[in-house]
Batch of 4 targets.
Target 1
Amino acid sequence: MEPADIVKNAFAMPLTSPSFARGPYRYTNREYLVITYRTDRAAIEQNFHDIKEVHGAGKQQLRNYWANIAAYHLTMWLHTLIELWAWKKPRRELSDRSASPWDDPTRRPSHADRRNALRRQCLKNEFQHAEAAGTIPRKIHHLWQRLLKLVA
């Protein structure tokens, strides 16, 4: 599903299970209208869990009240930007489950998997810039590859 499809088809929320039918509507002789909103509670709880556990939102202890609010907002932005970066990435690029054979390889990548994939990408970019600047011995190259697997 593309973002343009969401904009085109988003007449009610949640998108995959709308609360009410597509219009047009006629409201005659009604004093008020009540529209209910349904959500997937499990999805909201999982998203909040990722923000708290993966990024540590709410664990910052700053002296100023507004600094705490700013830190929380930065954490939320970080979460959003990682999700945006991983939007069109294939699953195999986001999570490598070869090191854990007990894990289900078809499992959806978690936010931590997405964050680690972004870390790997950033480290690879840095290493490629270092390689472009000069020659790096083969031993250092192999050590870098092993480090890359350990870090992210």
Note: The mean pLDDT is 78.
Target 2
Amino acid sequence: MLLKSKFKLATAIGIMLSMLSLLVHLFLANYSAGGITKYSMHMDDVLPFGPRPRPRRLWGPLRKLDHLHPFAKPSKTYAAPSQHNGFIYAKIYGGFEKIQSSICDLVAVARLLNATLVIPEIQATTRAKGISPKFKSFSYLYDEDHFIDALSNDVAIVRGLPKDLREARKKIKFPTVSPRNSATPEYYMTEVLPRLVKSKVIGIIVNGGNCLKSILPANLEEFQKLRCRVAFHALRLRPQIQALGSQIVGRLRASGHPYLAYHPGLLRDTLAFHGCAELFQDIHTELIQSRRNQMIKRGTVKEQLTVDSVSRKMSGLCPLMPEEVGLLLQALGYPPTTIIFLAGSETFGGQRMLIPLRAMFANLVDRTSLCSQKELSDLVGPEDPLTSDLPHPPPPKSEKQLIEEWKRAGPRPRPLPPPPARPFYAHEKEGWYGWIGENDTEPDASPIEFRRQAHRLLWDALDYFVSVEADAFFPGFHNDGSGWPDYSSLIMGHRLYQSPSGITYRPDRKIVAALFEDVSDHRYHPPRNWTIAAREHLNRSAGVEGIVSSATLSRPVSFLAHPLPECSCRTPKSPAVQPVKSSNGRLLFGGEEECPDWMVRSLAMASAKNSEPQNEDYEDELPEDDSSLDTQHESDRSDVNKSSEQGEEMDPDD
């Protein structure tokens, strides 16, 4: 009896201790959580006192480009055209970069034809795509009122056709044209203008993003400045996008450190066009090849389905992988605590492709880690619910139905039923890749996929704003040679116009591929001469040499990727710059006109105000051969390598 009572007492004491331990754990968990946990930057404590140095070599400004300033005003004042030849309405297809470029071209075309431009329709943001009824097509991305007011002296712009013409358009009484890529001004004057004068209304359908030739004759220089005014001043993102973008920039700089923006350029269409499928594995190769097969059937690609992706990469036709970008940033001297903002709505291959870069730079962030879900949903606006495109399980059967099936099942004994098929989980069906496990052909886009495409435009616009404001920018893929405007090139052109002395790298992928081929077996421990060679190439790419070499490729495709010298001016006391011309005699750098007196005075006042406090933030030019920095990085890499060898091997599929 005594033994039983002792046993009960011990049991009660054990239960009480367990309850006490549970309460302590709950209290500690609640105390440590402190509400919603936000992302915090990982900063080292190398220099705990005073302001951190900001090397000019890594963060700018570049002294050789200090004399350039944005200036896109017309050379002489001119009023909007008095002659009115009719209305132009337009439908624009494609992603954010094609939309941005197409709108600039359409404004220039309307000015060329002395026509009134109706606010263009962005097909990916029409109501049929399921976007919020709060927005119209154009206003989903841009500020309509500012767009109309900013161009009031250049082109007459209206929100819609008059009522009678609108009814006639619904009955398809007006002609439409679909200009080929990089159409010439002569095409519009000889083919489009007579039809416009005759019908008073004409529609233009833009698919490739370039409905007007990038390089215009010398007598149309004012049209190039008009393009700059449209792209960099009139096309202002709607206030909600700008406000959230400013908040992201503030959060990135909240620690007092600069940040670098990086756009991987890993897009499925781009990879399929250039034949880079073999650089990926498993399902991603199939997806790229499937899209390439579609491009071959449409006539977009004139080559075979299967090509040598390795030779394409050695020729500079494939993007730089995030791992390679991380190694290049290390060679430049960026510390592991550098804040890197990942731009772009799509990174083909997902987070798995970013594992090596995140291992080298822990502060790799994007909009989802810097914004709450509510902030992003407020940007999208209220939307009507759509049926999910995920497979639905069959409805459960009633007891009566089960009994009837049992009776109709045949004589006994019956064989055991086959085991149930493996269910498809939600994460296997979401996105554009879910069909690959069930079908050989890609299904048509569902309504919810159309809505996702509209959302991607918002994310691209938001990341575009943050990338233009960044202290440095590194493109994973620009000047791809496809003949279409690309996202990274538009950012680089905007930065060249707005802050030409900022750090914007323009790597030659052919040279970079050769550099990595030399250290293919030991790229994480390259010799010192390799680090110096990579650093010298990237530093040159950020300066005048990189601007000129990049312009030879980007200028014929997109004027907005290289808006010099038409949209810049130089200060009178700037050092003499030798003009650089292309093979056909076009200026690529130099030859800018002098800034007007009022602008020179305002620049002098601004520099006088900012000179004193900014001297603390910048160090003198760091030597290109900073042996101590390289030694420190090599020791850091060796320590990381030792620790990784002692631990367990990481599964790449995790």
Note: DSSP finds 24 helices and 16 strands in the chain.
Target 3
Amino acid sequence: MEAPFGPAWAAYWPYPDHIVLGGTAVEDDEDREPDPAVAERIRQRCIEVEPRLRNARVLGHQVGLRPTRPSVRLEIEQLARARCVHNYGHGGSGVTMSWGCARESAALLTATPERRKASEAVTESDVRRVALSLPATTEKPSYGTPGFRVKDKLFARIREQGDLLV
């Protein structure tokens, strides 16, 4: 799936024991209760893309809120004797970016104090390093900016200087 997309689209994320179907993106909708009609429309759109989903057993429904900000916040903060990693603001890319951001969060937690001070913000170089460390990742432009893909499927893009879309 690649932008631009509207408020209704089709995407699925396979896991070893289940598949997550999506999507809708309705601005300012914070209702956490699944809507059966919306769920069925998502299912039908995904079946159009991947017909093998037609006979899949539905295990359940969940609503995913996608808080967003101008850029992802991925940094560490000292709170008394504890360290807190802020890792949010991914918008609709949270599921896609969970692996890379989790890895970077772990790196922030385990880094030496000197390294943490030197890396207050995630840089383009950090994104490139983390993305290319993932298995089978290649770098290929997306909309004229650096993009990172696995099997030619985009999972991260650096939109412009200082604006990382992960």
Note: The longest helix spans residues 94-110.
Target 4
Amino acid sequence: MDTAGTWSASWTTIVGSFTSYRPGLAVFNSKLYYFESVGTTHALRYKSMNDAGMWSSWSSVPTGSTNAGPSPVVYNDTLWLVVKGLAGSKLWYATTTTPDTAATWSSWTSLAGSSASAPSVVVVPETNVLHIAVRGNSLPKTWHRTYNGTTWSAWEAMDAQDPDAQTTDTPVMNIFYWFGGQDGAQ
């Protein structure tokens, strides 16, 4: 989509991209960042697109790897990357405020949980709360955790009221705004 809000007529190839997992996208400091996991080591790498539509060269997220799609999100003027790690399917995150310099990524921090698939992350702007949802490892239920900038909540089952509720893949979270009237009229 261009700056006027018009979709291009065809798909554009991201040169050099090859991933077996879904990529992750985030807009940070007016650039579109594309994250992917590649190769037999499942190394994490990324590139950014500037306002002119030009892609940067590839950069690596130091020591990061995942065998699922990476999940980037912007929270409190910081770019977060949440992943399911290779060993034991544990959940981790790393952050940066200057992603154009690969050496500025934080160390990986454990989220004290695990998942059978990629995490889903979103920030609710009205409350400034970061939300993470994952598919559980031992029980295929959707688990949820939040961060308010200071404190992490405990993991909780999103479908705790329904013992038969299960998921077979990554949960999806999005923010949707409706600008119409009650009956849909604008």
Note: The chain has one domain: 24-157.
